[in-house]
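Let us work through a complete example step by step.
Step 1: write down the sequence.
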Amino acid sequence: MHFASERVRVEDDGRRFSIREENTGYCPDCQIRIPARSSITATLPYAQFPRLPESPPGPHATLTLPFAETSCRASS
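Step 2: predict the structure and record it as tokens.
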């Protein structure tokens, strides 16, 4: 994820594990458009969290992955 280590993290047993920093370049129009009433799915491999222990997180671990929602209306 593009420079997201301050925002994207796994928290487990009071410990925080940030996602790896990655520079994906500048993209002025990189908005993902999701049609109304639809969904998306994604996978974040453990390798994206370099400080995460080898064993899977515990049952109460949480993933923080903030996103922004906006509504686009076509102009006539």
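Step 3: interpret the result. The radius of gyration is 16 Å.
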